[in-house]
Amino acid sequence: MSRIQTTFQRLQIEGRKALIPFIVAGDPDGELTVPLMRSLVAGGADIIELGVPFSDPMADGPVIQRASERALTKGMSLARVLDIVRAFRTEDVVTPVVLMGYANPVEAMGVAIFPDAARKAGVDGVLVVDYPPEECVAFTASIRAAGLDQIFLLAPNSSGQRFHDIAQASSGFLYYVSFKGVTGASHLDFDEIARRIPLIRTAAGMPVGVGFGIRDAEIAKKIGAVADAVVIGSRIVEEIETSPREQACAKVETFVREIRVKLDELAGARS
Question: Active-site positions?
């Protein structure tokens, strides 16, 4: 059983919801990323989603686009992202780390090389935005052979059959995109999310996380009331962008703790 699966199993027993914060590796620089990851954990993160910077992040809004640009300007690469995970693992062997990014950096490293390199670095799961499951069968097989979870995005207009198809290819959890659009927008339809999540969970038979558009603790709590996990990224990246470097870790920890406190008000509520 993977670290991701173990985490969800523990949280289910506790009646708690998973908090999955996202930051971009190398933003504002490579030296601060590990301290930021540790701040996420100190604030109550259950799983860390670590963005692999890319020059054309099509699913991301301007906040994460700027973060990727800053990281790339400082020389961040997929190989250096793996070094960051390796450094994080020297003090934390419990918190799962999911790499989220795009196909180009993976293919530049080599799809045959990446899965084992990620495993050795301490990565637990991979979400490649522009790899739909039907077009990356061999890659998914190699990810699973390396003992990693392959996570896919599920669009809000997906059909019941699509739920099933993506679930067959996925492991760890499913990532439901809360609306049509890019990260950081704010037009959530809570009624629609509440209607669809139970259908997805039933079809998939695995935990469902919801991301895109979650900007504060109250929204996180509303999403947590129906989902198994809350994924929050752009708002955290904004904290990093707008804070002096020496204050970024403290700001991030405080913000994540606010989310954690609200989610824990749902303790005992099983969806």
Answer: 49, 60
